[in-house]
Amino acid sequence: MAKRLLVFVVAALVTGATAQLGLWFAPFVVGVLAGLLSLRWRHVTLVAAAGAVAGWGLPLWVLALRGFPSGATARAIAAFAGLPPFASITVVVTLLLAFLQAVVGAWLVRAFTPRVTAEPPAGANE
Amino acid sequence: MVSAVGAVVVSVALLGIMGFGYGTIPALGPALDPGRGAWTSAGGGQPVSSEKLDVPGLTKPVTASFTKDGLASINADSDHDLFLALGYVHAKFRLSEMDAERRLGEGQLAQLGGPSDLASDEFELRLGLLRTARNEWTRTTGQARMALLAYSQGVNDDIAQVRADGDWPAVFTLTGAYPKPWTPVDSLVIQGVLTQELDYTTEPLDYTLLDRSLGTMNTMNWFPVLPANTWTPYDTGPYKKEPLTPVSPGVASSAPAGSASLTSTASVAAPGGGGGTGERLADSSAVAVAAGQLLAQLSQLPARQIHKYPDSNAWAANGSAVAGGGALLGGDPHLPQTLPSVWYEVSLSAPGYQVAGATVPGVPGVLLGHNSHIAWSLTNTQNQATFYYAEKTRGDEYYWDGAWRKMTVEHYTIPVRGAATVHLAVDITAQGPIMTQAGQQMAVDWMGNVPSDDLGALLGINTASDWPQFKGALSGWRAPAQNFTYADNDPTSTAASAPSPASTHGQVGNIGVYAAGYYPQVPSGCQPWLPMSGTGACDIDGVIPYNAIPQVYDPPSHIVADDNQRPVSASYPYYIGTSDDFFDPGYRAAYAYQSLRAGEPLTSSSIAALQNNLTDSLASSMVPQLLTALRSSSLTSSAQRSALSLLSSWNDAMDENSAAATIWWTFWSDYVTGVFAPWWKSGKVPVGKDEGGLSLGAGLVPLYEDLQAWTSGDPDNAAFRGPDGQGPGNAQAAMVAAFKKAVSGLSSSLGGSPSAWTWGRVHSREFPSVLGASGLGYGPRAAGGDPFTEDAADGGMTAEAGPSWRMIATLTAGGVSAEGVYPGGQSENPASPWYTNLVPLWWDGQYLPIPPPGSVAGDSKWTLDG
Fold first, then answer.
1. How does pLDDT run across B117-133, given as a tens digit for each residue?
2. Which pLDDT score, from 0 to 100, does residue B412 have?
3. Interface mutation vs chain B, best among A23, A77, A92, most B CBs within 10 Å
4. I want to staple B474 with a disulfide (CB 3.0 to 4.6 A). Which of B24, B109, B346, B516 is the partner?
5. DSSP assignment letter at B653
6. Residue A56: its chain B contacts at CB < 8 A?
7. Which pLDDT value is given to residue B70?
8. What residues pair up with B345 in beta bridges, in sequence order?
9. Of A22, A74, A76, the CB nearest to B35
10. How far apart are CA B323 and CA B228, in angstroms?
């Protein structure tokens, strides 16, 4: 459990911090790393993907906390993109992109690595 | 193996689409990156706070202060710094709008919007706003040159800051098409876009199709050069008849330099533009094909790109007409109403400029406003400034002035978002660019393509202090022709000295209108309302001289009303356009004169009341005749009797709660359609080629004028009998039939009692997003008004055009003060509190004081320092 929490936090911090640098593909890299880790730890892919989502959600939350009009901005982005002008659409699409990147990154690694035939029991390494 | 291939393909596809986009899908990765993507535009949505900003190029610190509503005031120690700061402030609040406007004019819109904007880009590059702007820049000198250079630097300072911070307006991040550095040519292109929107017209193309469908006689009877009804010109004469002024040489934006046709010795054209046929066109059917094709091409452009509605108001009063003396000026230009607005309100103060009012983002200087001595506003003159020529061609040559000549060819590349780059070659003849090659090569000679020192003129009136200076500054203004309505606070006013029963001591102020611009003339015998021969015989041979163009100064009535009506009477000795040239039918002008005279002595409240007035004066003249017709006919249903009762007690106000307004408007539409639709059907008018210019449902103003005139003066006109003789036969029968049809139609569509058919149920206003983003506009919201009310609502039952800015200036010996409002807000950022905050004020007919030049507008203050 602690390792999963660690993976979640690290994934969130990495994706959140790199987003500030414009490294939008960081969730994919996190996914690749999660794919490597998943050779040893079960469910780590989903945990890392959740961390990536949190990492991209964090700046949006901070934006709102600082009093920026993030809801109105999200609505405007949806409208400019030709989508229905609802803030929730932009938020969901943004977070979905982080999630998809992480999952696809992990999938890429798993597709090129041999399957582990005998995984340790759940919690054995915790 | 399959899984590996799948994983690679999906990974590459996902990262590729996110990194580079696909088709019109933007690069979603950088666009939605929460740290650097479009989300950062939230910063621009925060309320402005006091801070110090680094603005390179300033020689001394400049302050920009803001009221709580966002109205700006800029104070600088030099004119250079003032314009630099204005460019910076404009860009801070309107960079997306400015970039979109210059893209539109420069034919680069498809790079932002994709293939759907290609038609617009091709049209603009053919027409040549960019060529004209470049030409103008090479001729720009003095204050205008200084202002453009400083302004450009200010815009670029903001772009550099935004680039460094990554705080781009969302539209840039989403499209990945970031703004290039601003140049003076960009400002001149935006000036050209505004000129096009006010001045480029297609009537000769519509006349061509009407002529072929309805026949020449019916076309010219129903769409005559001079309208069938009466109107109220502000310039009643006597008129001067002087030799024409040659068009300025070097019209290289549209024609090869040194074109003899446009610089030849001029002669006076016959009144009405000549009456002969001129040189016959070889193949009129080919011309009709070309006209239809060009109209179809134009129909793909955004609605506001071509001039459509004539609804502006500008009034001035002085002397005994004004309470307490002094002068008053009211101005409300009616344009497409968008978010953000075309206007940005600002007060400017520097050693050479003390001026406030409405500016156009992208252009330095105040377009409508006041300084310490004068106030002014503009309405469109509506004269014909677009002439079409059917060229005689052979390969890449055209025949002109007795010889075959090579066309000039300009090449352009148009980047298209999500598609391949398009290459465009534009052929240019002596008359101008070839706009279509379908059926017949057709060139256009448009006055907006003549280099015009509009900015020099604008800066001149910004600093003028009396009528001679004001009028003198406008001598360089060529297009778009505008009625510049004027008032001053001159203590030696002729108005003060003119005897008047109501005159009092202490009166100051003069008023006037000068309709600056080019009014092109063609030789007698040519018909400028149709495409003309391109061989040289019908080339423009000059323009109406400066002293003879429409104008009025200190009229004895102490009132002038300029509402886009034909500004001169029928005896004016020059051609300025036909009844189909968007001159307002004169209903608003007549009502304004009547209302202003009745309201004397006038105050600013009188002007405000009139700007927000909803009286339809066409209804005032027609409803009594309708009632007479109905009372002598048999009304068979209770709904008809109820509708008659409502009309009988109606005050002619197109109020949103008025049911009579709905009945009137539906009746009038059915009256027009009932009389003319059989002719349209019989003649097979190709309405689909140009809905706005040919469809009866679009509100063809000349037909309104015809019906108004015939109903009272020619009730048995042949038009009432229809093409097959089976029509109602006279005006009275046609009106009764139209009324019954209107009641029947409204019963079906709205149901219930006629008293419940309120205007607001069928009529609304909408202010769409200028970038076309649905959901970022305002409305539709139930609203009063129609195209003929002073508070005009035009563009259909969901009106998108109307008062784009309302201003009232009060001029006394103590100075000039003004109040204004526009439907929108100072910021283009939809997340900003200043995006729509002025809309409720505008909607309720309220105004805000325009901060006086030199004042500190509010507590929020930027200190700009280089």
1. 999 999 999 999 999 99
2. 97
3. A77
4. B516
5. B
6. 34
7. 97
8. B358
9. A22
10. 37
Could you tell me which residues are beta bridge partners of residue B22?
A: B25
Please tell me the predicted confidence (pLDDT) of residue B280: 52
Write down the residue that tokens 């002024």 correspond to. B245
Across B551-564, average pLDDT:
96
CA-closest candidate to residue B345, choices B772, B841, B714, B864: B841
* Interchain CB distance below 8 Å, B36 and A21: yes
Quick one: tokens of B725? 């003789």
Is-cis flag, bond preceding B780, omega within 30? yes
Please give the mean pLDDT across all residues of chain A: 89
Provide the residue count of chain B. 866
Chain A residues touching residue B417 (CB < 8 angstroms): none
Q: Do B187 and B144 form a contact (C-beta atoms < 8 A)?
A: no
Whether A94 is in a domain gets the answer yes
Can you say whether the dihedral through the CA atoms of B189, B191, B194, B196 is positive or negative?
negative
The amino acid at residue B387 is F
CB contact under 8 A, A69 and B37: no
Q: Considering only the beta carbons, identify the residue of B14, B36, B42 that sits closest to A69.
A: B42
The answer to whether residue B830 neighbours chain A at the CB level (below 8 Å) is: yes
* Kind and range of the H or E run holding B770: none
Q: What's the mean pLDDT in B194-201?
A: 93
> Which domains, and CATH codes, for chain B?
2-198 (1.10.439.10), 617-652+657-762 (1.10.1400)
Task: Determine the Cα–Cα distance for residues B91 and B152; give it in Å rounded to an integer.
Answer: 10
Residue at A76 is within a domain: yes
CA distance B444 to B459: 30
Pairs of residues, one from chain A and one from chain B, whose beta carbons lie less than 8 Å apart: 138
Nearest Cβ partner of B7 from A25, A79, A108?
Answer: A108
Give buried/exposed letters for B373-411 (b at 16+ CB in 10 A, else e): bbbbbbbbbbbbbbbbbbbbbeeeebbbeeeeeebbebe
User: Hey, how many other C-beta atoms are within 10 angstroms of the C-beta on A112?
Assistant: 12
Q: What is the dihedral of CA B535, B539, B541, B547, to 10 degrees?
A: 180
B244 contacts chain A (CB < 8 A): no
Best of A14, A53, A58, A80 to substitute, by most chain B Cβ atoms within 10 angstroms, is: A80
Q: Which domain holds residue A71?
A: 2-112
C-alpha B259/C-alpha B825 separation (Å) is 46
Token pair, residue B656, equals 């949103």
Contacts B46 to A, Cβ<8 Å: 67-69
Counted domains in chain A? 1
If you average pLDDT over residues B356-366, what whole number do you get?
Answer: 98
CB contact under 8 A, B39 and A77: yes
* Closest residue in chain A to residue B830, using alpha carbons only: A76
Give B353's strand partners: B350
- Name residues 14-33 of chain B within 8 A of A (Cβ): 14-15, 18-19, 26, 28-30, 32-33
Q: State whether residue B784 is helix, strand or coil.
A: coil
Q: String of b and e for B148-165 (b: at least 16 CB within 10 Å)?
A: bbbbbbbbbbbbebbeee
- Residues 6 or more apart whose CB falls under 8 angstroms from that of B854 comprise B73, B75, B347, B349, B354
Q: How crowded is residue B651: how many other Cβ atoms within 10 Å of its Cβ?
A: 12
Q: Among residues of chain B, what percentage have pLDDT more than 70?
A: 94
**What type of residue is A87?**
A
Contact criterion met (CB < 8 Å) for A70 and B38: no
Nearest to B99 by CA among B767, B771, B769: B771
User: Is residue A120 included in any domain, yes or no?
Assistant: no
Separation of alpha carbons B435 and B388, rounded Å: 9
- CA B656, B657, B659, B661 dihedral sign is negative
A20 contacts in B (CB within 8 Å)?
A: 35-36
State the pLDDT at residue B504. Answer: 43
CA-based nearest residue in chain A for residue B24: A81
